UniProtKB/TrEMBL annotation:
<feature type="transmembrane region" description="Helical">
    <location>
        <begin position="12"/>
        <end position="33"/>
    </location>
</feature>
<keyword id="KW-0812">Transmembrane</keyword>
<feature type="transmembrane region" description="Helical">
    <location>
        <begin position="117"/>
        <end position="137"/>
    </location>
</feature>
<feature type="transmembrane region" description="Helical">
    <location>
        <begin position="45"/>
        <end position="63"/>
    </location>
</feature>
<keyword id="KW-1133">Transmembrane helix</keyword>
<feature type="transmembrane region" description="Helical">
    <location>
        <begin position="75"/>
        <end position="97"/>
    </location>
</feature>
<protein>
    <submittedName>
        <fullName>Uncharacterized protein</fullName>
    </submittedName>
</protein>
<keyword id="KW-0472">Membrane</keyword>
Length: 146
């Protein structure tokens, strides 16, 4: 597998999953469960997805020579895919299931729950950023040495 194919798979995963979430949140901000609190939900959504999405999309501008190189360590690619899927699954669960749970009966309770869950994402976000960054760095640094 080449670095470009691995990178393309990561980009597809993030782009498709994020666009589905954007459509879901957009619909519910305009017509559904998030209508009473659009600003808070959009801010929370952007806080935990925008930086990673920017890292993933920005990584496509690496040196063109890397695109033809073989992927040096597949383990870092699998770690990047696995942590991405786990992170995106957590975001999806929070956005889809939390508002419909029996524990959330008001707008204030939902905002408190979002804030509390945000503490977990504050822990997960640097881990994901590190894994993704290391995937890109590791392949780039090995090819630079060759």
């Amino acid at each position: 597998m080449t670095f470009f194919i691995a990178q393309k798979q990561l980009i597809k995963l993030w782009f498709i999953w994020t666009m589905v979430l954007v459509l879901f949140v957009g619909y519910h901000v305009l017509f559904g469960i998030f209508k009473p609190i659009p600003k808070e939900v959009i801010t929370w959504f952007a806080k935990y997805l925008a930086s990673i999405f920017a890292l993933i999309m920005g990584s496509t501008f690496f040196n063109q020579k890397l695109f033809k190189e073989n992927l040096n360590d597949k383990i870092y690619f699998y770690l990047a895919i696995g942590t991405s899927i786990l992170y995106l699954t957590f975001i999806t669960v929070v956005l889809v299931i939390l508002p419909r749970s029996e524990q959330v009966n008001s707008k204030e309770e939902y905002l408190i729950q979002l804030k509390n869950i945000g503490l977990i994402f504050n822990f997960l976000l640097p881990i994901l950023t590190g894994v993704l960054g290391y995937f890109f760095y590791k392949n780039k640094s090995k090819n630079a040495e060759s």
